[in-house]
Amino acid sequence: MRTVIGVVLAVVILCCGGGALWVGLQARVEQTAYPAGTTGTARVVSVAEELTARSRKPASTSYRPTYEFTTASGRTVTFTDMASANQPPEIGSTVTISYQESSPEGARVVRGWHGWTDVAVFWTFLAALVIGVAGFGFYKVVIRRSRLGRGLPRP
């Protein structure tokens, strides 16, 4: 009975880890170019300051930039970045963006592999940790106990 509970628990934890990995990778995908999209350059036109209140720590400030770019068809589009930054970007600075010609309002900043945001890193790290715990639990409960039950030496 304990083995069955251990296996079920390991599978549940593994599924949670898989879900966390999916969230982390989805956050990462939202920072890459659209597969069939257009890549261009946008410039920072404004920066909104966001104050986050915390119960036991001082409030923190983050900055959410708004960008403007011109599509390949000549249309001017303005969009606000989904990710906030710890430092305010300079007004007039430029970034690489990707958009779909059918809906350029859904443009996103292309950060490349060096631009992992805190959200993507957190969920991916959490996934690795949870999957490791599930793997260790599965080893301990199932593999090790089955080896000992058959009289095989400990690995």
Overview of this protein structure:
The chain has 155 residues and is α+β, with helices and mostly antiparallel strands. The chain has two domains: 2-26 and 121-149; 33-110, Beta Barrel (OB fold (Dihydrolipoamide Acetyltransferase, E2P)), CATH 2.40.50. 39% of the residues lie in helices and 29% in strands. It has two helices and five strands, in the order αβββββα. The chain has helices at residues 2-29, 118-149; strands spanning 38-52, 60-70, 76-80, 94-100, 103-109. The chain has a five-stranded antiparallel sheet with strand order 3-2-1-4-5, with no helix packed on it. Strand 4 and strand 5 form a beta hairpin. Helix 1 packs antiparallel against helix 2 (118-149). The longest helix is centred in the last third of the chain and has 32 residues, at 118-149. The mean pLDDT is 79.
